[in-house]
Amino acid sequence: MNAQTGRQLSLNAFLHDTGHHEASWRHADSSVERVGDITWYQEIARTAEAAKLDAVFLADSPAWYGTGYRPSHEFEPITLLTAIATATERIGLVSTASTSFYEPYNLARLFSSLDRISGGRAGWNIVTTFSEDAARNFGLDATPSNEDRYERAQEFVDVATLLWDSWEDDAVVADRPSGDYVDVSKVHAIDHVGRHLKVKGPFNAPRSPQGRPVYIQAGSSNEGRAFAARNAEAIFTAHQTLSDARAFYDDIKSRARSFGRNPDHVLVLPGISPFIADTAEEARELYEHFNGLTVPAYGLDQLEKMGGVSLRHLDLDEVVPIEAFGSAGNVLDNSRSRKQVIANILERDRPTLRQLLHRLAGGRGHNVVHGTPVQIADTIQEWFENGAADGFNVMPPLYPQLLDAFIDRVVPILQERGLFRTEYAGDTLRDHYGLPRPDSVYSADLALASGK
Amino acid sequence: MNAQTGRQLSLNAFLHDTGHHEASWRHADSSVERVGDITWYQEIARTAEAAKLDAVFLADSPAWYGTGYRPSHEFEPITLLTAIATATERIGLVSTASTSFYEPYNLARLFSSLDRISGGRAGWNIVTTFSEDAARNFGLDATPSNEDRYERAQEFVDVATLLWDSWEDDAVVADRPSGDYVDVSKVHAIDHVGRHLKVKGPFNAPRSPQGRPVYIQAGSSNEGRAFAARNAEAIFTAHQTLSDARAFYDDIKSRARSFGRNPDHVLVLPGISPFIADTAEEARELYEHFNGLTVPAYGLDQLEKMGGVSLRHLDLDEVVPIEAFGSAGNVLDNSRSRKQVIANILERDRPTLRQLLHRLAGGRGHNVVHGTPVQIADTIQEWFENGAADGFNVMPPLYPQLLDAFIDRVVPILQERGLFRTEYAGDTLRDHYGLPRPDSVYSADLALASGK
């Protein structure tokens, strides 16, 4: 434990087929042959658990990338995490799922079941999904507006919360002599009728170990930040510099306070994708070797999907115009937060198109770093102790080798410095993140407190 | 193997919390304390696998029973089966899922992932869900008509089929030197626009081991039979007598032929719920002991939900009027098939209300039998060899004790008679059921054969 504050880092392993670098599958040592093999993911999760990481995390979108240049996810994330749950005991299990393209009753069941199967380790990364490819798989011609998506997201979270709470914790009595299995006075219809959803309830299963999965959010647009500050217990975010990350951190914590929430219960966890080697020079060479494996056509595709801007007219060795991501004429969609990250890179570093594609190849806008184990640990500590992060979403460029390097060489330094646990203090993801277990909104004590 | 025909029984273990008898949880030896414990289901599945059963099966409805008199399912079925997949190697894994209340892209992902995680063992029991409680959890005020539900179901199955087929089996090339991971000419948008659904595709994962999960169906209304004969590879059904079962069997096989299908690839699997003991008298006593644990108020509730008829005005010891399930005035919903089963019981046996409730308490209209191991085996053989069944959905009244009795005492008799396997012949559920693996509808060979 940190002698001064007792504050501890949270560290997730962000899973991503062969690794977070877009060309990782082409690396000679990649495990591309195993991306359809569930035991490979179970092994990675066990490695992360042995190092006492808080959670494994999966991003998700219900659509195909639309490219032949890299693997797609072969597993649906909640089933993948269920399979990991049965192969692990303590590590948290965070799945992304879309409020725009799921029905809340179905999704609530999946997360409740994962929470029960895992003994209280489920987390939900709540996304609204701006992908047009996804919208077209669900009856729509185009992505709904940011405002509409976030309005539905809030209604969806409210409904899911009521469903998870609709069985009070002590509703099951299982009294053989009387034949009463459930105290029906403790199971509540939710009777929700709103603009986007109409759900009667109650839920069809008892409350799960954590009460609700941990609520996580990753949007950084204005709507996304407001939503996160109101609902999220952890926030996954992408920043390239300490100062950008600090500004975001301050903004989120202050917004959370304005909702009457304890800012310590809103963890800010930026992504970090570390290339680790014995020397700084070797680490840079490793980073450059991966960038040398990229396919520019893929990078240009992703730039369009992620940043909403086409740069196909530029030569790869041409400096990208500083206003490319600020000019309204070029905007193809409303993925504002990632566009801002890219605009900041252009302004700060004036990269050529090739350099920009390489900057994004490692982490799609997340912070890609290279260095010795001590250098990586220093960066983590610097962000952690200077108001930029409560922990990190660790995004190994290549699985499992660069997760192993992080765990074997960086984590021990963090532990030695008192910044990261050497044993789990509890059994649930809420325990790992230092979050309370919420009472059911229907529980008698709460009803009493509110004067009902 | 049966010396005369070589035909082999298919046997599933139909899972249902403490057991299929509605009062099983009240039995002194029930495992009601473990219904929220995933390892309990894994143990049961391993028992069924050790006996070489074809599959475990889960029913499902996305709504609460609305009663305090028995346990609800604590797990969502696809996640439950995923957890079982990781604890077993060969046994099939069949989940019910509703075409009325899921989006096909989401459901296709869940089943594809289960099929991959299990190495080709997934089956989908396709239901349209007539429960009004379910409809009200998904934005509706009432259940859509039988016709509407089956129209959507057909469109849903067509869409899911195209999604599962949209990656041809050899689409993934994973060629490191060229950077081509997928041959994009073998990944197909499905571009579906129909009355109920609009789905562009393609799917976002490679084809799963079985190509598609095994298609199973359980509806017995006219629309249900037509749907089953056209789409299903196995049919779960409820009959009380050999002659009713034969009539159904003949009808389904002949309908399948009329769709140009091989009737051997449409297995008919009635439910059977066996009370097994050393003597016939002890088996009857066991059956009556369970019926003595029932709560009449629960049975009356279920009769309304299942049969669409209220008999609350009758005394428990009054004979149920023979026309109770045939009079349109009493009909609360359109669950026609189960109503027909009940009408047949009334006509044949003239039971009192209490006797009727007891008849339904064991298997909700499925065939509840009691007898010695030889008697149970004789019944199974009789139905199997007289055109009434290709196998059975075994519904133990109490888990695990009455599954154990079936496996330890009945299965060996069936094996001795050459009616049931002593080893699995293959690895997938399609192998166990004797079903072919379907080619993708997009595969070049098929396109050639159809002159495209």
UniProtKB/TrEMBL annotation, chains A, B:
Annotated transmembrane regions: none
InterPro entries: Diverse_substr_monoxygenases (IPR051260), Luciferase-like_dom (IPR011251), Luciferase-like_sf (IPR036661), NTA_MOA (IPR016215)
Segments forming domain Luciferase-like: 36-388
Residue positions binding FMN: D60, T96, Y150, S220, S221
GO molecular function, one term: monooxygenase activity
A Pfam family of this chain: Bac_luciferase
Keywords: Flavoprotein, FMN, Monooxygenase, Oxidoreductase
Keyword Iron found: no
Family, per entry: Belongs to the NtaA/SnaA/DszA monooxygenase family.
Protein known as: FMN-dependent oxidoreductase, nitrilotriacetate monooxygenase family
